[in-house]
Write a structure and sequence with these properties.
Order of helices and strands: HHHH
CATH topology: Ferritin
Distance between the termini: 58 Å
Number of domains: 1
CATH superfamily: Ferritin, core subunit, four-helix bundle
Number of strands: 0
Number of helices: 4
CATH class: Mainly Alpha
Radius of gyration: 19 Å
């Protein structure tokens, strides 16, 4: 395993996580409109998830004898909800891409591979959440009315 390459990629992921913590917390503060509390909660939860990711990534960098970065990736601001969601989606996609890049480099280390796979999964799910909120993913319903079946008696 090329440890220095892995550390470099993880540090890029860490800088993205730092940016997400700050940007999403700022979004929670700035979001406006009739559903402000709902969206503020969403952004706060995403910020907390990014903080947890940053903590884990930093721990792994140290375990690999590396120095965790203290520099966040670029942070964007907006007061427009749709733009906030787009910016959040962009960060999540970048994080997902970064951890995917690390995956082939860590295949020989089972614990590190498991960690990176979990990060890939978490970021993928976060991408999906933002895409749903932006209407980029749609759920279709085949049947308009669903009739629950009566409970079976033993």
């Amino acid at each position: 395993m090329d440890t220095q390459a892995v550390i470099g990629i993880l540090n890029r992921g860490l800088s993205i996580e730092y940016a997400a913590v700050i940007q999403l917390l700022q979004d929670a503060a700035l979001v406006q409109g009739p559903h402000r509390e709902l969206h503020a909660s969403f952004f706060r939860e995403r910020s907390e998830a990014s903080w947890k990711h940053a903590h884990k990534v930093g721990q792994w960098i140290v375990l690999l004898n590396g120095l965790p970065t203290v520099e966040p990736a670029p942070i964007k601001q907006s007061t427009d909800l749709t733009e906030m969601l787009r910016q959040g989606l962009e960060l999540e996609r970048e994080a997902h891409k970064t951890y995917l890049e690390a995956l082939p480099l860590v295949m020989d280390d089972a614990a590190l591979r498991l960690f990176v796979e979990e990060m890939v999964q978490d970021e993928r799910l976060d991408v999906e959440k933002f895409e749903l909120l932006l209407g980029q993913k749609t759920v279709t319903v085949a049947v308009k009315e669903v009739m629950p079946k009566p409970a079976r008696r033993p």
